[in-house]
Design a protein that fits this description.
342 residues, 60s Ribosomal Protein L30, Chain: A, Phosphoribosyl-aminoimidazole Synthetase, Chain A, domain 2, eight-stranded mixed β-sheet, 9 helices
Length: 342
């Protein structure tokens, strides 16, 4: 059924303002859902005003979320689109050990989506903003045939506690958080559009409502344990190579050590390979990080209920290899998400 839109940019802006004004009131009158004074002037003026915390550095990131490329209007619930567009950007801050403070939303959408679809989208976005302690500071809206979303997040990290991609050194051990491949599996289930598909099914939720690993990222940064770190958004095979390139090193990982989706859960008759899901599937938003050997004993098995798994070692030779169960190694080619790949 085609919904009727408001047809007015002012009406769209008023819907957005009203949703986040309610959130501001619920948080005790502060513009920040985290209760800080970081955002001193938010939506409603020509620009936002922010006040940085002494001895902290500001962290900026932005992310596109595009209909057709990142979500399908006829498959993805609007509230999941709202949640995920912010979660994706916040994950970049988690990868540096930073905490999100506020965000800007640039939204282009068709006129017919400016009513109930927009309301559901904003509901998911508001839930994500509350979950991540991140306030809406402003943004822009316009009309377009397809939905285009850009989110810019501003965060903070204590000086000297940020974690970059470029710090990995030979003999460091390589770790990942969580379980890899579940989000890609969830996308495949969603594309199949089986009747009676349960949107609360864990693998679907990992795709629709990802949780950036903010607690783990901050913990690793504060403890100064991670020598290099990034989030897994495009797939391990692609993102590990990026981390190695930034650090001017190589890596060897072991396939048997990867925390993959269980064969029984995937189903043997589907033809889906859990190893390929773990290596090349995107959208996990887990953390990939390296730790010096002399500090690995300080790592627990999990942080905040999120498992931490060692999967390999950093090497001097600048190549990325994967070793299988019988000890044979091969070059791990980057076959994760690439918007420019044919």
């Amino acid at each position: 059924m085609r919904e009727s839109g408001t047809g007015s940019e002012d009406d769209v802006l008023e819907r957005i303002r009203r949703v986040f004004e309610q959130l501001r009131k619920q948080s005790g009158g502060s513009w920040s859902t985290a209760g800080s004074k970081f955002l001193s002037l938010g939506i409603g003026d020509d620009a936002a005003l922010i006040s940085g915390t002494p001895n902290y550095e500001m962290v900026l990131t932005c992310d596109w979320f595009l209909e057709g490329a990142h979500f399908l209007r006829n498959k993805h619930p609007a509230d999941a689109v709202g949640w995920k567009c912010l979660a994706r950007a916040v994950s970049d801050l988690a990868a540096m050990g930073a905490a999100p403070r506020c965000f800007l939303l640039s939204l282009a959408l068709p006129r017919e989506l400016t009513s109930s679809w927009l309301d559901a989208f904003l509901a998911g976005l508001r839930r994500a903003a509350t979950r991540f302690g991140c306030s809406l500071a402003g943004g822009d809206t316009t009309e377009r045939r397809e939905v285009l979303i850009n989110v810019t997040v501003v965060g903070e990290v204590r000086q000297g506690r940020e974690v970059r991609r470029s710090g990995a050194r030979p003999s460091d051990l390589i770790y990942v958080s969580g379980r890899l491949g579940e989000a890609e599996l969830g996308l495949r289930l969603l594309r199949q559009q089986k009747r009676g598909l349960n949107m609360r099914e864990p693998r679907l939720r990992r795709h629709l409502y990802p949780e950036p690993q903010l607690e783990l990222g901050r913990w690793l940064g504060e403890k100064r344990l991670a020598t290099a770190m990034m989030d897994l958004s495009d797939g391990l095979s692609s993102d590990l190579r990026r981390l190695c390139d930034a650090s001017k090193v190589g890596a060897v990982i072991t396939s048997d050590d990867l925390p993959t989706v269980g064969i029984a859960k995937v189903g043997r008759k589907t033809g889906i390979d859990p190893l390929k899901l773990a290596l090349h599937g995107g959208d996990d938003y887990e953390l990939l990080f390296t730790v010096s050997r002399n500090k690995t004993r300080q790592l627990p098995r999990s942080v905040g209920g999120v498992a931490i798994t060692p999967i390999g070692e950093v090497i001097r030779k600048r190549e990325v290899m994967i070793t299988n169960g019988d000890g044979r190694s091969r070059v791990l080619k980057p076959r994760g998400w690439d918007p420019f790949r044919g």
